[in-house]
Design brief:
membrane; 38 strands; 10% helix; 4 helices; 7-stranded mixed beta sheet; Ig-like_dom_sf; 604 residues; transmembrane helix; Immunoglobulin-like; mainly beta; 5 domains; 4-stranded antiparallel beta sheet
Amino acid sequence: MTVMGFNFIDRAEEPQLSVNGDPRVGEESKVSCTVHHTCPSAPPTLTMNGIPGVDVTRGSMLSDGVWERTVERTWIVKEEDQSVKCTVSYQGGQKATSELRLNVECPYDRITMVEPPGETIEGVAKSVICSVTYKCKKNAPTIVWNYKDVQSSLQTKKLPSNTFEATSNLTFIGSLSDNGKTLTCTAQFSHGETSDSAILRIKKYDRTFEETHENSEGLILTADVPFKFSALTRSCVVIPCSFQQQDMHLTRGIWSKKDGGVVYHNGQSYILDHFKDRTKILGDLHEGECSLEIDDVKPFDNGPFCFYAEKDNEKYRFNNSCAFLVMKASPEKPVMTPVPEEVNAGSTISVSCSVNHTCPSYPPVFSWSVTNLTSEVTDTMTTRGVWSRTSTITFMVSGGDGVKSLTCTAIFLRDKQQASTVKINVKGSLSYQLRSSLPITIPVLIILLVIILAAVLICRRRRNTDTSLQPPPRPEKRRSLWDRLSRRYNEDRARPPRPEKRRSIWSRISSRAEDGRVGWKKGREPRHPDNSANLSVGYLNNTNTVNYEAQISKPHFPSPKNNRRTPHYVKPEVSIVRVSGEVNIINKKVVAMTSSFLRKKEVI
């Protein structure tokens, strides 16, 4: 007896998506959607969305009771195809969906140098074209060349069958040093690149390549013009020209191309549009100067350019008056004077950097990679039409041991530049840092030392200070109006001394003196027959007393009843006494009161 088991699930099984190979734009590709089921009589329905194409449905049994249903779609891959979805639907209404991301590739063809440079003459511009086709518009390439300072343009266009083409047109200017080298163009895509190359064949310019300008007819003067002259594109150039003046009083000088067309004329209407506002004659024609300056030199401004003159309606032609311009795409590299291989940090070094140029109106500007202490620029003419500009600087080597770079950059007109670099091995940075920090460290240390010494002296003085030098106690806090009017007084603070009470008449003539008051005390000694009195003076709130003893002779006063004579008053002398370290003079008024007191006593 065979027992069979069933596995029931409450949701639909998700379909499985797969792609045959890597889908590439413009090519045919296939994607499949598969699901397993157990009902061959009512199989599930598979639906695909996201990409258009043709479907093929297949079904097969995998094992007992399990069937497989597959839908395969064939389509032409497009750039915008991002993903595909597959939905399975069962008879009971259950559904399940799966999604697959399509990593669509953007193919491109190999780049081709459609127009190679071939054999060229030095300094003569040549158009070189490279082209590449690709499928995705968003994957447009960047085409680069292995030569810098060359002018190039990039154009793209759409071709039939959803294909795009990128074309780079290079204006190549070769020199004799480029002969045998490789010219390479490279198309760089987001996911790769492709290149093509050509071997350069450069020949030297010679007059045999051009038909001579001179002929035996009409030649009356000889000019001094170099037949070949170098010029930097986008800069300016001065073609040297001079002739022997024979008092001909020429009215105008004219430069023209060998094959026709006026390059310079004092009438602007005669000049070719290509050269308008870019040419002028330097110097005085009456002194035999006829040099031509061309500004913003173009790659195809090779010439040859020839000079002739006019006097009224008569033309004067010159022998050796034509010049061919050998174009250069890049300026010359500056040359630096030698520097020591090893230098100490903080030492001073002088170095010069020189470069040749052919544009005296706009000479190059130098830039250094170090901060200079002094700088000087000089100009000299090395040969006719060629100038040398030299920059000499003095700089201090900065700290930091190791190999450092010193770079001089010559910047030409319209931002063309060349640089030279030398290496310098720097040592002794630690001692340099110590020396450089001394001007700051020493004053700071002196200030700190002064502060520390001052603090120590103040501390010692405070410890040894006598109590007599301490500041006086703070004055008593001002009492409130209530405290001053009230008879009660706070016990927690000292009671101020009471002011001296005004003495009555009796107290003033009484023989007793109140304690703690200034007064005259009569001694308890009996009267002396010699009419003398012992008097003492006391000062309020002062523990010191001043005794005043004056021997006053006074006669005996008889009783008034007995008609006694008035005693003769002897005025006591004023004495000077010292109280609490101060000298006080007893007021004469006190003396007068004393005399009155004695008289009253006698009367009594």
